[in-house]
Amino acid sequence: MTPMAETVTPSGTTTATGHLLASLDPLLREWLPRQRWFAGKGRPVTGFTPVAVTELLPPDGRIGLYHLLLRVHQPPVLGAPPHPGDCYQLLIGVREALPPRLAPALIGHVTDGPLAGRTVYEALYDSRPAEVLLEALRTRARVGGLRFERDAEQEIREGLVARLMTAEQSNSSIVYGDTFILKLLRRVVPGVNPDLEIPLALAREGCPRVPAPTAWLHADVDAESYVLAVLQPFVNGASDGWELALRELAKGEDFVAEARALGRATAEVHTALARALPTVTLGQAQLRSLVDGMLERLEAAVQAVPVLRPYEQGLRSAFTALDDLAAEGRTWTAQRIHGDLHLGQCLRSPSGQWSLIDFEGEPSRPLAERRMPQPLVRDIAGMLRSFDYAAHSASPPAPEWAHRCRAAYCSGYAEVAGRDPRTDPVMLRAYETDKAVYEVVYEARHRPDWLPVPLSAIHRLATSDPSDPT
Ligand SMILES: Nc1ncnc2c1ncn2[C@@H]1O[C@H](COP(=O)(O)OP(=O)(O)O)[C@@H](O)[C@H]1O
Ligand SMILES: O=P(O)(O)O[C@H]1O[C@H](CO)[C@@H](O[C@H]2O[C@H](CO)[C@@H](O)[C@H](O)[C@H]2O)[C@H](O)[C@H]1O
Protein backbone atom coordinates (compact mmCIF):
# COMPACT_ATOMS: atom_id res chain seq x y z
CA MET A 1 0.00 0.00 0.00
CA THR A 2 1.07 3.59 -0.63
CA PRO A 3 1.19 5.95 2.39
CA MET A 4 -2.12 7.08 3.79
CA ALA A 5 -3.64 10.31 2.39
CA GLU A 6 -5.40 10.74 5.72
CA THR A 7 -6.00 8.37 8.55
CA VAL A 8 -8.66 9.11 11.10
CA THR A 9 -9.15 7.11 14.25
CA PRO A 10 -10.81 8.12 17.52
CA SER A 11 -7.50 7.71 19.33
CA GLY A 12 -5.55 9.55 16.66
CA THR A 13 -3.07 6.68 16.27
CA THR A 14 -2.06 5.62 12.80
CA THR A 15 0.14 2.56 13.31
CA ALA A 16 -2.64 0.06 13.91
CA THR A 17 -4.57 1.22 10.85
CA GLY A 18 -1.40 1.11 8.75
CA HIS A 19 -1.00 -2.57 9.71
CA LEU A 20 -4.68 -3.19 9.05
CA LEU A 21 -4.44 -1.81 5.52
CA ALA A 22 -1.25 -3.74 4.74
CA SER A 23 -2.88 -7.00 5.81
CA LEU A 24 -6.13 -6.25 3.95
CA ASP A 25 -4.42 -5.37 0.67
CA PRO A 26 -4.04 -8.89 -0.85
CA LEU A 27 -7.48 -9.95 0.42
CA LEU A 28 -9.29 -6.92 -1.02
CA ARG A 29 -7.56 -7.22 -4.41
CA GLU A 30 -9.24 -10.58 -4.80
CA TRP A 31 -12.59 -9.82 -3.09
CA LEU A 32 -13.45 -6.36 -4.43
CA PRO A 33 -13.75 -7.18 -8.16
CA ARG A 34 -16.29 -9.92 -7.30
CA GLN A 35 -18.74 -7.47 -5.70
CA ARG A 36 -21.85 -6.56 -7.73
CA TRP A 37 -21.38 -2.86 -6.92
CA PHE A 38 -17.74 -2.73 -8.04
CA ALA A 39 -17.78 -0.53 -11.13
CA GLY A 40 -14.27 -1.34 -12.44
CA LYS A 41 -14.96 -4.92 -13.55
CA GLY A 42 -12.74 -6.35 -16.28
CA ARG A 43 -9.59 -4.48 -15.16
CA PRO A 44 -7.25 -5.80 -12.44
CA VAL A 45 -6.95 -4.03 -9.08
CA THR A 46 -3.32 -2.99 -8.76
CA GLY A 47 -3.37 -1.26 -5.36
CA PHE A 48 -5.14 1.04 -2.92
CA THR A 49 -4.66 4.47 -1.40
CA PRO A 50 -6.57 5.05 1.82
CA VAL A 51 -8.65 8.24 1.78
CA ALA A 52 -9.93 7.82 5.36
CA VAL A 53 -9.86 4.98 7.86
CA THR A 54 -12.06 5.12 10.95
CA GLU A 55 -12.24 2.61 13.75
CA LEU A 56 -15.89 2.20 14.83
CA LEU A 57 -15.44 -0.81 17.16
CA PRO A 58 -11.96 -1.70 18.49
CA PRO A 59 -10.56 -4.98 17.16
CA ASP A 60 -9.79 -6.27 20.66
CA GLY A 61 -13.49 -6.78 21.41
CA ARG A 62 -15.57 -9.75 20.12
CA ILE A 63 -16.27 -7.83 16.89
CA GLY A 64 -14.03 -5.13 15.42
CA LEU A 65 -15.38 -2.66 12.88
CA TYR A 66 -13.54 -0.36 10.49
CA HIS A 67 -14.98 2.21 8.13
CA LEU A 68 -12.78 2.61 5.05
CA LEU A 69 -12.73 5.01 2.15
CA LEU A 70 -10.25 3.51 -0.30
CA ARG A 71 -9.08 4.75 -3.65
CA VAL A 72 -8.74 1.72 -5.90
CA HIS A 73 -6.02 1.73 -8.53
CA GLN A 74 -6.67 0.06 -11.87
CA PRO A 75 -5.22 0.47 -15.37
CA PRO A 76 -7.33 3.10 -17.23
CA VAL A 77 -10.13 2.04 -19.59
CA LEU A 78 -8.68 1.58 -23.09
CA GLY A 79 -8.34 4.99 -24.78
CA ALA A 80 -9.43 6.93 -21.67
CA PRO A 81 -7.15 9.50 -19.98
CA PRO A 82 -5.28 8.46 -16.78
CA HIS A 83 -7.58 8.39 -13.74
CA PRO A 84 -6.63 8.55 -10.04
CA GLY A 85 -8.95 5.59 -9.32
CA ASP A 86 -12.49 5.36 -7.92
CA CYS A 87 -13.07 5.78 -4.19
CA TYR A 88 -15.14 3.06 -2.49
CA GLN A 89 -16.81 2.87 0.91
CA LEU A 90 -16.19 -0.39 2.80
CA LEU A 91 -17.23 -1.61 6.24
CA ILE A 92 -14.84 -4.27 7.42
CA GLY A 93 -15.65 -6.52 10.36
CA VAL A 94 -13.00 -8.41 12.34
CA ARG A 95 -13.76 -11.62 14.29
CA GLU A 96 -11.84 -14.62 15.61
CA ALA A 97 -13.90 -16.84 13.32
CA LEU A 98 -17.11 -16.43 11.33
CA PRO A 99 -20.28 -18.19 12.43
CA PRO A 100 -21.83 -20.20 9.52
CA ARG A 101 -24.58 -17.57 8.91
CA LEU A 102 -21.82 -15.07 8.01
CA ALA A 103 -20.03 -17.38 5.55
CA PRO A 104 -21.18 -15.35 2.48
CA ALA A 105 -19.59 -12.26 4.07
CA LEU A 106 -16.05 -13.68 4.21
CA ILE A 107 -13.28 -11.49 2.81
CA GLY A 108 -10.40 -13.62 4.09
CA HIS A 109 -8.07 -14.67 6.88
CA VAL A 110 -5.33 -12.27 7.97
CA THR A 111 -1.88 -13.87 7.98
CA ASP A 112 0.35 -11.17 9.48
CA GLY A 113 0.41 -7.97 11.55
CA PRO A 114 -1.55 -7.36 14.77
CA LEU A 115 -4.68 -8.99 13.33
CA ALA A 116 -2.87 -12.19 12.28
CA GLY A 117 -5.11 -15.23 12.71
CA ARG A 118 -8.33 -13.15 12.64
CA THR A 119 -11.02 -13.23 9.99
CA VAL A 120 -12.11 -10.09 8.11
CA TYR A 121 -15.52 -9.87 6.49
CA GLU A 122 -18.17 -7.62 4.92
CA ALA A 123 -19.58 -6.16 8.14
CA LEU A 124 -22.97 -5.15 6.71
CA TYR A 125 -24.07 -8.81 6.82
CA ASP A 126 -23.66 -8.75 10.58
CA SER A 127 -26.47 -7.24 12.65
CA ARG A 128 -24.26 -5.81 15.43
CA PRO A 129 -22.05 -3.61 13.18
CA ALA A 130 -25.14 -2.58 11.17
CA GLU A 131 -26.83 -1.54 14.42
CA VAL A 132 -23.76 0.52 15.38
CA LEU A 133 -24.40 2.63 12.27
CA LEU A 134 -28.05 3.24 13.16
CA GLU A 135 -27.15 4.13 16.72
CA ALA A 136 -24.52 6.59 15.46
CA LEU A 137 -27.15 8.25 13.23
CA ARG A 138 -29.68 8.31 16.08
CA THR A 139 -27.22 10.01 18.43
CA ARG A 140 -25.63 12.30 15.79
CA ALA A 141 -22.20 10.82 16.49
CA ARG A 142 -18.92 12.32 15.28
CA VAL A 143 -16.14 9.77 14.86
CA GLY A 144 -12.95 10.99 13.22
CA GLY A 145 -14.06 12.57 9.93
CA LEU A 146 -17.42 10.76 9.97
CA ARG A 147 -20.37 13.05 10.67
CA PHE A 148 -23.67 11.28 11.41
CA GLU A 149 -26.64 13.67 10.92
CA ARG A 150 -30.41 13.38 11.31
CA ASP A 151 -33.66 15.26 10.85
CA ALA A 152 -34.67 16.43 14.33
CA GLU A 153 -38.38 16.11 13.44
CA GLN A 154 -38.30 12.35 12.76
CA GLU A 155 -37.98 9.82 15.56
CA ILE A 156 -35.53 6.90 15.34
CA ARG A 157 -36.38 4.20 17.87
CA GLU A 158 -33.53 2.48 19.70
CA GLY A 159 -32.77 -1.20 19.16
CA LEU A 160 -34.24 -1.79 15.69
CA VAL A 161 -32.95 -5.10 14.31
CA ALA A 162 -30.86 -4.90 11.13
CA ARG A 163 -30.83 -7.08 8.01
CA LEU A 164 -28.87 -6.59 4.81
CA MET A 165 -30.90 -6.53 1.60
CA THR A 166 -29.63 -9.19 -0.75
CA ALA A 167 -30.98 -7.67 -3.99
CA GLU A 168 -28.49 -7.05 -6.79
CA GLN A 169 -27.73 -3.37 -6.38
CA SER A 170 -25.32 -0.62 -7.39
CA ASN A 171 -25.04 0.19 -3.64
CA SER A 172 -25.84 -1.70 -0.42
CA SER A 173 -28.94 -1.29 1.75
CA ILE A 174 -29.75 -2.35 5.32
CA VAL A 175 -33.34 -2.57 6.57
CA TYR A 176 -33.93 -1.81 10.27
CA GLY A 177 -36.96 -3.49 11.79
CA ASP A 178 -39.04 -2.85 8.62
CA THR A 179 -39.04 0.79 9.71
CA PHE A 180 -36.03 2.34 7.97
CA ILE A 181 -33.74 1.55 5.09
CA LEU A 182 -30.13 2.75 5.06
CA LYS A 183 -28.51 3.00 1.66
CA LEU A 184 -24.70 2.95 1.82
CA LEU A 185 -23.20 4.40 -1.32
CA ARG A 186 -20.33 2.30 -2.60
CA ARG A 187 -18.49 4.37 -5.20
CA VAL A 188 -18.32 7.85 -3.72
CA VAL A 189 -17.17 11.26 -4.94
CA PRO A 190 -16.84 14.48 -2.96
CA GLY A 191 -19.63 17.04 -3.32
CA VAL A 192 -23.40 17.29 -3.04
CA ASN A 193 -25.01 13.94 -3.81
CA PRO A 194 -28.38 14.11 -5.59
CA ASP A 195 -29.53 10.97 -3.73
CA LEU A 196 -29.69 13.13 -0.60
CA GLU A 197 -30.11 16.57 -2.15
CA ILE A 198 -33.25 15.79 -4.19
CA PRO A 199 -35.25 13.89 -1.52
CA LEU A 200 -34.40 16.66 1.01
CA ALA A 201 -35.61 19.31 -1.44
CA LEU A 202 -38.81 17.36 -2.12
CA ALA A 203 -39.41 16.85 1.61
CA ARG A 204 -39.15 20.63 2.10
CA GLU A 205 -41.81 21.02 -0.61
CA GLY A 206 -44.03 18.51 1.19
CA CYS A 207 -44.02 16.16 -1.84
CA PRO A 208 -45.36 12.77 -0.63
CA ARG A 209 -44.03 10.79 -3.63
CA VAL A 210 -40.49 10.39 -2.23
CA PRO A 211 -39.61 9.01 1.24
CA ALA A 212 -38.14 11.94 3.21
CA PRO A 213 -34.55 11.39 4.44
CA THR A 214 -34.47 10.69 8.17
CA ALA A 215 -30.68 10.73 8.65
CA TRP A 216 -27.48 10.75 6.62
CA LEU A 217 -23.75 10.23 6.91
CA HIS A 218 -21.01 12.55 5.67
CA ALA A 219 -17.22 12.15 5.69
CA ASP A 220 -15.10 15.29 5.87
CA VAL A 221 -11.71 14.59 4.33
CA ASP A 222 -9.09 17.23 3.44
CA ALA A 223 -11.66 20.08 3.19
CA GLU A 224 -13.92 17.95 1.00
CA SER A 225 -17.19 16.40 2.05
CA TYR A 226 -18.56 13.05 0.85
CA VAL A 227 -22.17 11.86 1.25
CA LEU A 228 -21.83 8.22 2.27
CA ALA A 229 -25.28 7.00 3.32
CA VAL A 230 -28.95 8.01 3.54
CA LEU A 231 -31.57 6.61 5.95
CA GLN A 232 -35.22 6.78 4.81
CA PRO A 233 -38.52 5.38 6.06
CA PHE A 234 -38.97 1.84 4.71
CA VAL A 235 -42.12 1.36 2.62
CA ASN A 236 -43.18 -1.90 4.22
CA GLY A 237 -44.69 -4.52 1.96
CA ALA A 238 -43.93 -2.48 -1.18
CA SER A 239 -43.44 -4.03 -4.61
CA ASP A 240 -41.34 -2.32 -7.21
CA GLY A 241 -42.76 -1.41 -10.59
CA TRP A 242 -40.50 -3.88 -12.39
CA GLU A 243 -41.70 -6.89 -10.34
CA LEU A 244 -45.32 -5.80 -10.73
CA ALA A 245 -45.02 -5.25 -14.48
CA LEU A 246 -43.42 -8.69 -15.00
CA ARG A 247 -46.09 -10.32 -12.84
CA GLU A 248 -48.91 -8.76 -14.89
CA LEU A 249 -47.18 -9.65 -18.16
CA ALA A 250 -46.81 -13.27 -17.04
CA LYS A 251 -50.57 -13.38 -16.32
CA GLY A 252 -51.35 -11.72 -19.66
CA GLU A 253 -52.80 -8.75 -17.72
CA ASP A 254 -52.74 -5.09 -18.63
CA PHE A 255 -50.69 -2.55 -16.65
CA VAL A 256 -52.44 0.51 -18.05
CA ALA A 257 -53.96 1.82 -14.79
CA GLU A 258 -50.60 1.52 -12.99
CA ALA A 259 -48.77 3.12 -15.92
CA ARG A 260 -51.17 6.06 -15.75
CA ALA A 261 -50.66 6.35 -11.96
CA LEU A 262 -46.88 6.28 -12.51
CA GLY A 263 -47.20 9.09 -15.05
CA ARG A 264 -49.11 11.12 -12.47
CA ALA A 265 -46.52 10.39 -9.75
CA THR A 266 -43.66 11.42 -12.08
CA ALA A 267 -45.41 14.69 -12.91
CA GLU A 268 -46.00 15.40 -9.19
CA VAL A 269 -42.28 14.95 -8.51
CA HIS A 270 -41.30 17.11 -11.49
CA THR A 271 -43.70 19.87 -10.46
CA ALA A 272 -42.33 19.89 -6.88
CA LEU A 273 -38.73 19.90 -8.16
CA ALA A 274 -39.47 22.87 -10.42
CA ARG A 275 -40.60 24.76 -7.30
CA ALA A 276 -37.71 23.59 -5.12
CA LEU A 277 -34.66 23.97 -7.36
CA PRO A 278 -33.60 26.26 -10.23
CA THR A 279 -35.09 26.05 -13.72
CA VAL A 280 -33.19 27.29 -16.79
CA THR A 281 -33.89 27.79 -20.49
CA LEU A 282 -31.82 25.81 -22.98
CA GLY A 283 -31.00 27.80 -26.11
CA GLN A 284 -29.07 26.84 -29.22
CA ALA A 285 -25.64 26.67 -27.51
CA GLN A 286 -26.87 24.43 -24.68
CA LEU A 287 -28.73 22.24 -27.14
CA ARG A 288 -25.53 21.91 -29.14
CA SER A 289 -23.61 20.61 -26.13
CA LEU A 290 -26.49 18.29 -25.21
CA VAL A 291 -26.44 16.80 -28.72
CA ASP A 292 -22.63 16.59 -28.64
CA GLY A 293 -22.84 14.62 -25.39
CA MET A 294 -25.31 12.17 -26.96
CA LEU A 295 -23.12 11.76 -30.05
CA GLU A 296 -20.01 11.21 -27.92
CA ARG A 297 -21.74 8.60 -25.82
CA LEU A 298 -22.91 6.85 -28.98
CA GLU A 299 -19.38 6.83 -30.37
CA ALA A 300 -17.96 5.43 -27.12
CA ALA A 301 -20.73 2.81 -27.02
CA VAL A 302 -20.01 1.69 -30.59
CA GLN A 303 -16.35 1.25 -29.64
CA ALA A 304 -17.25 -0.72 -26.52
CA VAL A 305 -20.05 -2.81 -28.07
CA PRO A 306 -19.35 -3.16 -31.82
CA VAL A 307 -22.70 -4.86 -32.48
CA LEU A 308 -24.11 -1.29 -32.45
CA ARG A 309 -22.10 -0.23 -35.51
CA PRO A 310 -24.69 -1.06 -38.24
CA TYR A 311 -27.20 1.19 -36.44
CA GLU A 312 -24.85 4.11 -35.86
CA GLN A 313 -26.09 6.37 -38.69
CA GLY A 314 -29.78 5.82 -37.88
CA LEU A 315 -29.16 6.54 -34.19
CA ARG A 316 -27.12 9.67 -34.94
CA SER A 317 -30.06 11.13 -36.86
CA ALA A 318 -32.25 10.89 -33.73
CA PHE A 319 -29.76 13.27 -32.05
CA THR A 320 -29.02 15.63 -34.93
CA ALA A 321 -32.77 16.17 -35.48
CA LEU A 322 -32.57 18.28 -32.30
CA ASP A 323 -30.06 20.61 -33.99
CA ASP A 324 -32.59 21.35 -36.70
CA LEU A 325 -35.20 22.41 -34.12
CA ALA A 326 -32.65 24.54 -32.26
CA ALA A 327 -31.66 26.25 -35.53
CA GLU A 328 -35.34 27.22 -35.96
CA GLY A 329 -35.08 29.05 -32.61
CA ARG A 330 -36.88 26.44 -30.46
CA THR A 331 -35.94 26.53 -26.75
CA TRP A 332 -36.52 24.02 -23.91
CA THR A 333 -37.02 24.38 -20.18
CA ALA A 334 -34.62 22.37 -18.06
CA GLN A 335 -34.81 21.60 -14.32
CA ARG A 336 -33.60 18.99 -11.83
CA ILE A 337 -35.05 15.57 -12.55
CA HIS A 338 -34.68 11.97 -11.34
CA GLY A 339 -31.99 11.18 -13.90
CA ASP A 340 -32.23 7.36 -14.04
CA LEU A 341 -35.95 6.70 -13.87
CA HIS A 342 -37.14 3.17 -14.62
CA LEU A 343 -39.73 0.74 -13.24
CA GLY A 344 -37.26 -0.59 -10.65
CA GLN A 345 -37.09 2.89 -9.10
CA CYS A 346 -40.85 3.04 -8.45
CA LEU A 347 -42.31 1.46 -5.30
CA ARG A 348 -46.02 0.76 -4.81
CA SER A 349 -47.16 0.58 -1.20
CA PRO A 350 -49.78 -2.01 -0.19
CA SER A 351 -52.35 0.83 -0.28
CA GLY A 352 -51.49 1.49 -3.96
CA GLN A 353 -49.46 4.70 -3.52
CA TRP A 354 -46.41 5.09 -5.78
CA SER A 355 -43.08 6.51 -4.54
CA LEU A 356 -39.93 7.21 -6.54
CA ILE A 357 -36.51 6.27 -5.12
CA ASP A 358 -32.80 6.39 -6.02
CA PHE A 359 -32.08 9.92 -7.22
CA GLU A 360 -28.37 9.20 -7.72
CA GLY A 361 -28.66 9.51 -11.52
CA GLU A 362 -26.88 7.18 -13.93
CA PRO A 363 -23.97 5.99 -11.75
CA SER A 364 -21.43 6.10 -14.59
CA ARG A 365 -21.94 9.83 -15.32
CA PRO A 366 -19.86 12.54 -13.54
CA LEU A 367 -21.52 14.14 -10.51
CA ALA A 368 -21.55 17.66 -12.01
CA GLU A 369 -23.44 16.36 -15.04
CA ARG A 370 -25.91 14.43 -12.88
CA ARG A 371 -26.74 17.63 -10.95
CA MET A 372 -27.41 19.79 -13.99
CA PRO A 373 -30.94 20.95 -14.89
CA GLN A 374 -32.19 18.77 -17.74
CA PRO A 375 -35.27 18.52 -19.96
CA LEU A 376 -38.11 16.69 -18.16
CA VAL A 377 -38.48 14.44 -21.15
CA ARG A 378 -35.32 12.61 -20.10
CA ASP A 379 -37.11 10.95 -17.15
CA ILE A 380 -40.13 10.20 -19.31
CA ALA A 381 -37.92 8.55 -21.93
CA GLY A 382 -36.42 6.39 -19.11
CA MET A 383 -39.88 5.12 -18.16
CA LEU A 384 -40.91 4.55 -21.77
CA ARG A 385 -37.77 2.46 -22.18
CA SER A 386 -38.66 0.53 -19.04
CA PHE A 387 -42.12 -0.49 -20.31
CA ASP A 388 -40.39 -1.64 -23.47
CA TYR A 389 -37.80 -3.53 -21.37
CA ALA A 390 -40.49 -5.36 -19.45
CA ALA A 391 -42.38 -6.24 -22.63
CA HIS A 392 -39.24 -7.56 -24.34
CA SER A 393 -38.19 -9.58 -21.29
CA ALA A 394 -41.47 -11.47 -21.51
CA SER A 395 -41.75 -14.66 -23.51
CA PRO A 396 -43.08 -14.14 -26.13
CA PRO A 397 -42.28 -10.40 -26.25
CA ALA A 398 -45.39 -8.20 -25.91
CA PRO A 399 -44.81 -4.97 -27.86
CA GLU A 400 -48.53 -4.06 -27.80
CA TRP A 401 -48.51 -4.24 -23.98
CA ALA A 402 -45.61 -1.77 -23.97
CA HIS A 403 -47.36 0.48 -26.46
CA ARG A 404 -50.48 0.73 -24.25
CA CYS A 405 -48.43 1.37 -21.09
CA ARG A 406 -46.34 4.04 -22.79
CA ALA A 407 -49.45 5.87 -23.97
CA ALA A 408 -51.14 5.60 -20.54
CA TYR A 409 -48.00 6.84 -18.77
CA CYS A 410 -47.84 9.95 -21.00
CA SER A 411 -51.58 10.59 -20.48
CA GLY A 412 -51.23 10.29 -16.69
CA TYR A 413 -48.29 12.68 -16.80
CA ALA A 414 -50.28 15.19 -18.85
CA GLU A 415 -53.22 15.04 -16.38
CA VAL A 416 -51.01 16.49 -13.62
CA ALA A 417 -48.39 18.52 -15.52
CA GLY A 418 -50.83 20.02 -18.02
CA ARG A 419 -48.46 19.09 -20.85
CA ASP A 420 -48.30 15.82 -22.75
CA PRO A 421 -44.69 14.69 -23.34
CA ARG A 422 -45.74 13.32 -26.73
CA THR A 423 -46.00 16.93 -27.94
CA ASP A 424 -42.18 16.95 -27.87
CA PRO A 425 -41.45 13.89 -30.07
CA VAL A 426 -37.97 14.83 -31.30
CA MET A 427 -36.57 15.41 -27.80
CA LEU A 428 -38.35 12.30 -26.51
CA ARG A 429 -36.88 10.16 -29.25
CA ALA A 430 -33.38 11.62 -28.76
CA TYR A 431 -33.49 10.78 -25.05
CA GLU A 432 -34.99 7.36 -25.62
CA THR A 433 -32.18 6.64 -28.06
CA ASP A 434 -29.55 7.96 -25.63
CA LYS A 435 -30.97 5.71 -22.90
CA ALA A 436 -31.10 2.64 -25.14
CA VAL A 437 -27.44 3.21 -26.07
CA TYR A 438 -26.57 3.49 -22.35
CA GLU A 439 -28.50 0.28 -21.68
CA VAL A 440 -26.58 -1.62 -24.37
CA VAL A 441 -23.30 -0.67 -22.66
CA TYR A 442 -24.75 -1.40 -19.19
CA GLU A 443 -25.99 -4.86 -20.19
CA ALA A 444 -22.79 -5.74 -22.10
CA ARG A 445 -20.85 -4.92 -18.93
CA HIS A 446 -23.15 -6.31 -16.22
CA ARG A 447 -25.67 -8.77 -17.72
CA PRO A 448 -24.63 -9.89 -21.24
CA ASP A 449 -27.64 -12.26 -21.45
CA TRP A 450 -29.92 -9.22 -21.41
CA LEU A 451 -28.27 -7.52 -24.38
CA PRO A 452 -31.06 -8.48 -26.84
CA VAL A 453 -33.56 -6.41 -24.81
CA PRO A 454 -32.07 -2.94 -25.48
CA LEU A 455 -30.86 -4.10 -28.91
CA SER A 456 -34.46 -4.66 -30.01
CA ALA A 457 -35.12 -0.99 -29.16
CA ILE A 458 -31.94 0.08 -30.95
CA HIS A 459 -33.24 -1.62 -34.07
CA ARG A 460 -36.63 0.10 -33.76
CA LEU A 461 -35.18 3.54 -32.97
CA ALA A 462 -32.62 3.41 -35.79
CA THR A 463 -35.13 2.38 -38.43
CA SER A 464 -38.67 3.62 -37.56
CA ASP A 465 -40.62 6.83 -38.17
CA PRO A 466 -39.00 9.62 -36.07
CA SER A 467 -42.35 11.39 -35.50
CA ASP A 468 -43.92 8.47 -33.55
CA PRO A 469 -42.69 8.62 -29.93
CA THR A 470 -44.70 5.68 -28.57
N1 LIG B 1 -37.84 3.57 1.05
C1 LIG B 1 -37.84 2.29 0.66
N2 LIG B 1 -38.75 1.40 1.11
C2 LIG B 1 -38.74 0.09 0.72
N3 LIG B 1 -37.82 -0.42 -0.09
C3 LIG B 1 -36.88 0.40 -0.58
C4 LIG B 1 -36.83 1.80 -0.23
N4 LIG B 1 -35.77 2.37 -0.86
C5 LIG B 1 -35.19 1.38 -1.57
N5 LIG B 1 -35.85 0.21 -1.40
C6 LIG B 1 -35.49 -1.10 -1.99
O1 LIG B 1 -34.08 -1.14 -2.13
C7 LIG B 1 -33.71 -1.39 -3.50
C8 LIG B 1 -32.45 -0.63 -3.83
O2 LIG B 1 -32.61 0.76 -3.63
P1 LIG B 1 -31.94 1.82 -4.59
O3 LIG B 1 -32.08 3.16 -3.98
O4 LIG B 1 -32.51 1.66 -5.99
O5 LIG B 1 -30.42 1.35 -4.55
P2 LIG B 1 -29.33 1.14 -5.71
O6 LIG B 1 -28.84 2.52 -6.10
O7 LIG B 1 -28.29 0.35 -5.02
O8 LIG B 1 -29.96 0.39 -6.87
C9 LIG B 1 -34.93 -0.95 -4.29
O9 LIG B 1 -35.04 -1.63 -5.52
C10 LIG B 1 -36.08 -1.29 -3.37
O10 LIG B 1 -36.45 -2.64 -3.51
O1 LIG C 1 -28.93 0.02 -10.30
P1 LIG C 1 -29.74 1.19 -10.76
O2 LIG C 1 -31.17 1.13 -10.37
O3 LIG C 1 -29.10 2.50 -10.43
O4 LIG C 1 -29.82 1.18 -12.40
C1 LIG C 1 -28.95 0.43 -13.23
O5 LIG C 1 -29.39 -0.92 -13.29
C2 LIG C 1 -30.68 -1.16 -13.89
C3 LIG C 1 -30.91 -2.67 -13.92
O6 LIG C 1 -31.09 -3.14 -12.64
C4 LIG C 1 -30.72 -0.61 -15.32
O7 LIG C 1 -32.06 -0.69 -15.80
C5 LIG C 1 -32.38 -1.46 -16.95
O8 LIG C 1 -32.97 -2.70 -16.52
C6 LIG C 1 -34.19 -2.53 -15.79
C7 LIG C 1 -34.72 -3.92 -15.49
O9 LIG C 1 -33.82 -4.61 -14.66
C8 LIG C 1 -35.24 -1.78 -16.63
O10 LIG C 1 -36.39 -1.50 -15.82
C9 LIG C 1 -34.66 -0.44 -17.07
O11 LIG C 1 -35.60 0.23 -17.93
C10 LIG C 1 -33.36 -0.66 -17.81
O12 LIG C 1 -32.76 0.61 -18.11
C11 LIG C 1 -30.35 0.88 -15.29
O13 LIG C 1 -30.35 1.36 -16.65
C12 LIG C 1 -28.97 1.05 -14.64
O14 LIG C 1 -28.63 2.42 -14.54
UniProtKB/TrEMBL annotation:
Gene3D superfamilies listed in its UniProt record: 3.90.1200.10
- Which transformation does this protein catalyse, written as a reaction? D-maltose + ATP = alpha-maltose 1-phosphate + ADP + H(+)
In terms of superkingdom, the source organism counts as Bacteria
* GO BP field: glycogen biosynthetic process
Top enzyme class of this protein? transferase
Annotated ranges, domain Aminoglycoside phosphotransferase: 179-417
Q: Which residues form the Maltokinase N-terminal cap domain?
A: 31-126
List the GO molecular function terms. ATP binding; kinase activity
Q: In which pathway does it act?
A: Glycan biosynthesis; glycogen biosynthesis
Q: What keywords sit in the KW lines?
A: ATP-binding, Carbohydrate metabolism, Glycogen biosynthesis, Glycogen metabolism, Kinase, Nucleotide-binding, Transferase
Entry EC number(s)? 2.7.1.175
Q: Of which family is this protein a member?
A: Belongs to the aminoglycoside phosphotransferase family.
Q: Quaternary structure per UniProt?
A: Monomer.
Q: What is this protein called?
A: Maltokinase
Organism listed in the record = Streptomyces bungoensis
Q: What is the lineage of its organism?
A: Bacteria, Bacillati, Actinomycetota, Actinomycetes, Kitasatosporales
